Every structure is written in structure tokens, then in C-alpha cells.
Amino acid sequence: MKVFAKSLLMAIVMTLPAGAAFSEGEFDGAVKARKAEMTLRAFNLGQLGAMAKGEMEYNADVAKAAAHNLKVMTTLNGMAMWPKGSDNAALGDKTNALPALWENFPKVIEAVKALSAAADVMADAAGKDLASLQGAMGAVGKACGGCHEQFRKKME
Ligand code: HEC
Questions:
Q1: CA 10 centroid distance within chain
Q2: Taking CB atoms and a 6 Å cutoff, what residues make up the pocket around ligand 1?
Q3: What is the pTM for the complete model shown?
Q4: Does domain 2-13+27-151 have CATH number 3.40.50.12780?
């Protein structure tokens, strides 16, 4: 959990010099990788959400695995996936990451930590029983949404 927060810090601190010229497509791999990570998060959260809503039968093993995956993802070192200059002001439609992500460091860390904390609680709760899973759900959803609200382009 703290590792990810730290890695994000590094990503912002170890910025390239201002005005550096980027070649076309330079950030494609990083953007693709971070979107892929978000997709994985959404898939795992989706399983938990479906169980919470009764759309999928509660299964402690499945719930535990999804919650474990979510938690592990908050520990990834994402440094190389968020290079400065890879915002949507620079890259247009290639990314939905707002420049604000690179300009509001303490708030980004807050958002990262909120998800880490919620994912930790979920990892302990999901395999217990359905009620515990449901109880942990709100904070995780709020943590994802809270960051998107601030740092991701509004979706239609
Ligand atoms: C610290 C901020 C932050 C947190 C926390 C966060 N996201 Fe994201 N998410 C983003 C940003 C920024 C983007 C836009 C990335 C881009 O387009 O380059 C994004 C994009 C996405 C996308 C779209 C991916 C795509 O293919 O375009 C999904 C789905 C997503 N997030 C799901 C989640 C889920 C589920 C969680 C919680 C478990 C979560 N996110 C937590 C910042 C965050």
C-alpha cells in the first residue's frame, strides 16, 4: 500500500525536464499499461459488486480471490505508468488522465491511500460472509470514484 503511494511520489518527483520534446507515441505503452491495470481493478471489483448486489451467488473463495487481487494491485509500483506529460492535455483522446493528476500531488496520494485502506478492509472482509463483503463495498467504490472525480476526464 505505502509502496504504491511512494511510487507515485517518485513518478512525480522524477519528472522529465520541462519542455522536453516527446516523440510521437512515446507514452503509448505507459498509457496502455495503466489502463490495463484499471481494467483489472474494475474486473475484480465487478465480481465483488455483483455478489454484493446478489447478481452473482456469494462464493467465499471467489470473493477472497477478487479482494486479494484488488489489494495486491494497490501495492504495484506504478512509477513508469504515469510519466509526466502523459495527460490528456498533451495526448488528447489517447488518455483520460487529467493534467491535475500531476499538479495536485498531496491529493493524489490521499486518493491512493484511500483505495489502499479500503482494499485492505475488503481483503479481510470478502471471504468471511456476504454481509461483511457488502459492508466493505462502499468504501472501495468511493475510493475509485473519488480519484476519478478529481483526476479522470468526465465520462459521458
Ligand atoms: C489514484 C487515482 C485512481 C484510483 C484510486 C483509481 N483510478 Fe481508475 N483511473 C484513474 C485515471 C487517472 C484513469 C484514466 C487513465 C488514462 O486514461 O490514462 C482511470 C481509468 C480507469 C478506467 C478506464 C480504463 C480505460 O481502459 O480507459 C477504469 C475501468 C478504472 N479506472 C477503474 C478503477 C477502479 C475499479 C478503481 C478502484 C478499485 C480505480 N479505477 C481506482 C485514476 C484512479
A1: 17
A2: 31, 34-35, 38-39, 41-42, 45, 70, 95-97, 101, 108, 111-112, 115, 140, 143-144, 147-148, 151-152
A3: 0.89
A4: no
